[in-house]
Protein backbone atom coordinates (compact mmCIF):
# COMPACT_ATOMS: atom_id res chain seq x y z
CA UNK A 1 0.00 0.00 0.00
CA UNK A 2 1.75 3.12 -1.29
CA UNK A 3 1.01 6.30 0.71
CA UNK A 4 -0.41 9.17 -1.34
CA UNK A 5 1.71 12.05 -2.55
CA UNK A 6 0.05 14.46 -0.10
CA UNK A 7 0.76 12.07 2.81
CA UNK A 8 4.43 11.88 1.84
CA UNK A 9 4.58 15.69 1.53
CA UNK A 10 3.07 16.12 4.96
CA UNK A 11 5.74 13.81 6.46
CA UNK A 12 8.42 15.91 4.75
CA UNK A 13 6.90 19.06 6.25
CA UNK A 14 6.75 17.49 9.71
CA UNK A 15 10.36 16.42 9.43
CA UNK A 16 11.37 19.98 8.59
CA UNK A 17 9.77 21.18 11.84
CA UNK A 18 12.16 18.85 13.69
CA UNK A 19 15.24 20.77 12.51
CA UNK A 20 16.73 21.28 16.04
CA UNK A 21 17.22 17.52 16.46
CA UNK A 22 18.31 16.66 12.90
CA UNK A 23 21.99 16.36 13.88
CA UNK A 24 21.45 14.72 17.28
CA UNK A 25 22.14 11.00 17.80
CA UNK A 26 18.83 9.26 18.53
CA UNK A 27 20.06 8.03 21.91
CA UNK A 28 20.62 11.63 23.04
CA UNK A 29 17.09 12.77 22.13
CA UNK A 30 15.04 13.11 25.31
CA UNK A 31 11.42 14.03 26.06
CA UNK A 32 12.29 17.72 26.55
CA UNK A 33 13.75 18.00 23.01
CA UNK A 34 10.62 16.53 21.45
CA UNK A 35 8.21 18.59 23.55
CA UNK A 36 10.20 21.69 22.64
CA UNK A 37 9.52 21.07 18.93
CA UNK A 38 5.77 20.86 19.60
CA UNK A 39 5.84 23.99 21.79
CA UNK A 40 7.73 25.95 19.12
CA UNK A 41 5.21 24.97 16.46
CA UNK A 42 2.36 26.08 18.74
CA UNK A 43 4.07 29.40 19.48
CA UNK A 44 4.24 30.02 15.73
CA UNK A 45 0.46 29.69 15.73
CA UNK A 46 0.37 26.53 13.61
CA UNK A 47 -2.61 24.22 13.89
CA UNK A 48 -3.31 21.29 16.18
CA UNK A 49 -3.32 18.97 13.17
CA UNK A 50 0.25 20.10 12.32
CA UNK A 51 1.30 19.05 15.84
CA UNK A 52 -0.45 15.71 15.38
CA UNK A 53 1.35 15.14 12.08
CA UNK A 54 4.71 15.89 13.72
CA UNK A 55 3.91 13.48 16.53
CA UNK A 56 3.00 10.71 14.11
CA UNK A 57 6.23 11.30 12.10
CA UNK A 58 8.31 11.10 15.28
CA UNK A 59 6.35 8.06 16.41
CA UNK A 60 7.21 6.15 13.22
CA UNK A 61 10.88 7.09 13.58
CA UNK A 62 11.07 5.97 17.20
CA UNK A 63 9.17 2.74 16.52
CA UNK A 64 11.77 1.89 13.91
CA UNK A 65 14.61 2.94 16.25
CA UNK A 66 13.24 0.66 19.01
CA UNK A 67 12.96 -2.23 16.60
CA UNK A 68 16.56 -1.73 15.45
CA UNK A 69 17.66 -1.25 19.09
CA UNK A 70 19.07 2.23 18.43
CA UNK A 71 17.07 3.44 21.45
CA UNK A 72 15.45 1.72 24.40
CA UNK A 73 12.80 4.34 25.19
CA UNK A 74 10.05 5.99 23.17
CA UNK A 75 8.98 9.36 24.58
CA UNK A 76 6.70 10.28 21.70
CA UNK A 77 3.46 9.09 23.30
CA UNK A 78 4.10 11.31 26.32
CA UNK A 79 4.05 14.50 24.23
CA UNK A 80 1.48 17.10 25.17
CA UNK A 81 -0.18 18.68 22.12
CA UNK A 82 -2.50 20.94 24.10
CA UNK A 83 -6.18 21.35 23.30
CA UNK A 84 -7.61 21.21 19.81
CA UNK A 85 -9.14 24.66 19.52
CA UNK A 86 -11.38 25.10 16.52
CA UNK A 87 -9.91 27.91 14.47
CA UNK A 88 -13.33 29.25 13.58
CA UNK A 89 -16.49 27.81 15.03
CA UNK A 90 -19.22 27.26 12.45
CA UNK A 91 -21.89 29.87 12.64
CA UNK A 92 -25.22 29.61 10.87
CA UNK A 93 -26.49 32.35 8.57
CA UNK A 94 -28.85 34.71 10.37
CA UNK A 95 -32.40 35.14 9.09
CA UNK A 96 -31.41 38.65 8.00
CA UNK A 97 -28.54 37.32 5.84
CA UNK A 98 -30.78 34.62 4.33
CA UNK A 99 -33.29 37.34 3.40
CA UNK A 100 -30.44 39.35 1.88
CA UNK A 101 -29.52 36.36 -0.29
CA UNK A 102 -33.12 36.10 -1.55
CA UNK A 103 -33.12 39.84 -2.26
CA UNK A 104 -29.95 39.47 -4.36
CA UNK A 105 -31.10 36.37 -6.21
CA UNK A 106 -31.41 37.93 -9.66
CA UNK A 107 -28.73 40.55 -9.12
CA UNK A 108 -25.67 38.53 -8.14
CA UNK A 109 -24.28 35.57 -10.03
CA UNK A 110 -24.31 32.34 -8.03
CA UNK A 111 -26.58 33.42 -5.15
CA UNK A 112 -28.90 30.54 -6.06
CA UNK A 113 -26.09 28.06 -5.24
CA UNK A 114 -25.78 29.45 -1.69
CA UNK A 115 -29.55 29.13 -1.17
CA UNK A 116 -29.53 25.59 -2.58
CA UNK A 117 -26.77 24.69 -0.07
CA UNK A 118 -28.73 26.23 2.82
CA UNK A 119 -32.05 24.55 1.98
CA UNK A 120 -30.58 21.09 1.24
CA UNK A 121 -27.72 20.83 3.75
CA UNK A 122 -25.47 19.48 0.99
CA UNK A 123 -21.71 19.61 1.36
CA UNK A 124 -20.06 21.86 -1.24
CA UNK A 125 -18.34 18.85 -2.86
CA UNK A 126 -21.70 17.09 -3.18
CA UNK A 127 -23.24 20.10 -4.91
CA UNK A 128 -20.34 20.63 -7.33
CA UNK A 129 -20.33 16.92 -8.30
CA UNK A 130 -24.08 16.83 -8.85
CA UNK A 131 -25.12 15.79 -12.36
CA UNK A 132 -28.58 16.50 -13.71
CA UNK A 133 -29.44 12.82 -14.02
CA UNK A 134 -29.39 12.65 -10.20
CA UNK A 135 -32.21 15.17 -9.89
CA UNK A 136 -35.76 13.90 -9.96
CA UNK A 137 -37.93 16.93 -10.64
CA UNK A 138 -41.24 15.07 -10.72
CA UNK A 139 -40.68 13.35 -7.37
CA UNK A 140 -38.89 16.47 -6.10
CA UNK A 141 -35.71 14.97 -4.72
CA UNK A 142 -31.95 14.90 -5.32
CA UNK A 143 -29.96 11.69 -5.16
CA UNK A 144 -26.44 12.04 -3.78
CA UNK A 145 -24.26 9.34 -5.32
CA UNK A 146 -20.84 10.82 -4.47
CA UNK A 147 -20.18 11.77 -0.87
CA UNK A 148 -17.49 11.99 1.79
CA UNK A 149 -19.10 9.24 3.87
CA UNK A 150 -21.22 6.17 3.24
CA UNK A 151 -24.19 7.66 5.11
CA UNK A 152 -23.77 10.70 2.86
CA UNK A 153 -25.21 8.69 -0.03
CA UNK A 154 -28.81 9.74 0.33
CA UNK A 155 -31.96 11.26 -1.10
CA UNK A 156 -32.54 14.93 -0.30
CA UNK A 157 -36.05 16.33 -0.77
CA UNK A 158 -36.24 19.58 -2.73
CA UNK A 159 -37.67 22.39 -0.61
CA UNK A 160 -40.51 24.29 -2.33
CA UNK A 161 -38.58 27.57 -2.07
CA UNK A 162 -35.57 26.32 -4.05
CA UNK A 163 -37.55 24.24 -6.56
CA UNK A 164 -37.61 27.15 -9.09
CA UNK A 165 -33.84 27.70 -8.63
CA UNK A 166 -33.11 24.07 -9.44
CA UNK A 167 -35.64 24.15 -12.29
CA UNK A 168 -33.77 27.10 -13.84
CA UNK A 169 -30.41 25.34 -13.48
CA UNK A 170 -31.84 22.18 -15.06
CA UNK A 171 -32.75 24.21 -18.16
CA UNK A 172 -29.21 25.50 -18.74
CA UNK A 173 -27.32 23.18 -21.15
CA UNK A 174 -24.62 20.94 -19.67
CA UNK A 175 -24.24 17.72 -17.71
CA UNK A 176 -23.70 19.26 -14.26
CA UNK A 177 -26.30 21.13 -12.23
CA UNK A 178 -23.80 23.85 -11.34
CA UNK A 179 -21.65 24.82 -14.31
CA UNK A 180 -20.08 27.94 -15.78
CA UNK A 181 -21.01 29.66 -19.06
CA UNK A 182 -19.00 27.07 -21.01
CA UNK A 183 -20.96 24.16 -19.44
CA UNK A 184 -17.93 23.12 -17.38
CA UNK A 185 -18.41 22.12 -13.73
CA UNK A 186 -16.88 24.32 -11.05
CA UNK A 187 -13.89 23.06 -9.13
CA UNK A 188 -13.62 24.11 -5.51
CA UNK A 189 -11.17 26.99 -5.96
CA UNK A 190 -13.16 28.47 -8.85
CA UNK A 191 -16.34 28.19 -6.78
CA UNK A 192 -14.60 29.82 -3.81
CA UNK A 193 -13.94 32.94 -5.91
CA UNK A 194 -17.66 33.12 -6.71
CA UNK A 195 -18.52 32.49 -3.04
CA UNK A 196 -16.18 35.23 -1.81
CA UNK A 197 -17.77 37.78 -4.16
CA UNK A 198 -21.24 36.92 -2.85
CA UNK A 199 -20.14 37.08 0.82
CA UNK A 200 -18.53 40.48 0.21
CA UNK A 201 -21.71 41.74 -1.41
CA UNK A 202 -23.99 40.67 1.48
CA UNK A 203 -21.32 41.71 3.99
CA UNK A 204 -20.95 38.27 5.60
CA UNK A 205 -18.01 36.14 6.72
CA UNK A 206 -19.16 32.57 6.13
CA UNK A 207 -17.58 29.38 4.89
CA UNK A 208 -19.46 27.05 2.56
CA UNK A 209 -19.78 24.58 5.45
CA UNK A 210 -21.82 27.16 7.38
CA UNK A 211 -24.69 26.45 4.93
CA UNK A 212 -24.85 22.86 6.16
CA UNK A 213 -24.78 24.14 9.71
CA UNK A 214 -27.57 26.60 8.87
CA UNK A 215 -29.73 23.81 7.44
CA UNK A 216 -29.23 21.74 10.62
CA UNK A 217 -30.14 24.76 12.77
CA UNK A 218 -33.26 25.54 10.71
CA UNK A 219 -34.37 21.90 10.95
CA UNK A 220 -33.86 22.02 14.73
CA UNK A 221 -35.80 25.27 15.05
CA UNK A 222 -38.64 23.78 13.01
CA UNK A 223 -38.63 20.79 15.39
CA UNK A 224 -38.07 18.28 12.60
CA UNK A 225 -37.76 14.78 13.98
CA UNK A 226 -34.25 13.57 14.74
CA UNK A 227 -34.10 10.73 12.22
CA UNK A 228 -35.53 12.80 9.37
CA UNK A 229 -32.93 15.48 10.10
CA UNK A 230 -30.09 12.94 10.08
CA UNK A 231 -31.30 11.42 6.84
CA UNK A 232 -31.53 14.78 5.09
CA UNK A 233 -28.02 15.75 6.22
CA UNK A 234 -26.61 12.28 5.61
CA UNK A 235 -25.46 11.57 9.15
CA UNK A 236 -25.26 7.95 10.24
CA UNK A 237 -28.73 6.93 11.32
CA UNK A 238 -30.06 4.54 13.91
CA UNK A 239 -32.85 3.33 11.63
CA UNK A 240 -30.48 2.00 9.00
CA UNK A 241 -32.59 1.49 5.92
CA UNK A 242 -29.56 0.59 3.76
CA UNK A 243 -30.19 3.60 1.59
CA UNK A 244 -33.47 2.34 0.14
CA UNK A 245 -35.95 5.17 -0.16
CA UNK A 246 -39.59 4.50 -0.92
CA UNK A 247 -41.99 7.14 -2.23
CA UNK A 248 -43.41 7.31 1.29
CA UNK A 249 -39.93 8.07 2.71
CA UNK A 250 -39.37 10.83 0.19
CA UNK A 251 -42.81 12.28 0.95
CA UNK A 252 -42.09 12.32 4.68
CA UNK A 253 -38.69 13.92 4.16
CA UNK A 254 -40.23 16.54 1.87
CA UNK A 255 -42.77 17.37 4.55
CA UNK A 256 -39.93 17.68 7.04
CA UNK A 257 -37.77 19.98 4.89
CA UNK A 258 -40.71 22.22 4.05
CA UNK A 259 -41.14 22.98 7.74
CA UNK A 260 -38.17 25.28 7.44
CA UNK A 261 -38.96 28.76 6.25
Structural write-up:
The chain has 261 residues and is mainly α. It has helices at residues 5-17, 31-43, 48-67, 95-103, 111-120, 124-128, 163-170, 188-201, 209-221, 226-233, 247-257; strands at 135-136, 141-143, 155-157. The protein starts with a helix and ends with a helix.
Distance between the termini: 49 Å
**Count of helices?**
11
With strands numbered from the N-terminus, the spatial order across the biggest sheet is 1-2-3
**Quaternary assembly:** single chain
Pick out the low-confidence regions. none
User: What's the total number of strands?
Assistant: 3
| Gross morphology | elongated
Proportion of helical residues: 40-55%
Largest sheet: 3 strands, antiparallel
| Order of SSEs | HHHHHHEEEHHHHH
Short description:
α10 (226-233) crosses α11 (247-257).
Secondary-structure topology with pairs:
Layout: H1 5-17, H2 31-43, H3 48-67, H4 95-103, H5 111-120, H6 124-128, E1 135-136, E2 141-143, E3 155-157, H7 163-170, H8 188-201, H9 209-221, H10 226-233, H11 247-257
Antiparallel strand pairs: 1-2, 2-3
Features:
261 residues, 3% strand, 3-stranded antiparallel β-sheet, mainly alpha, single chain
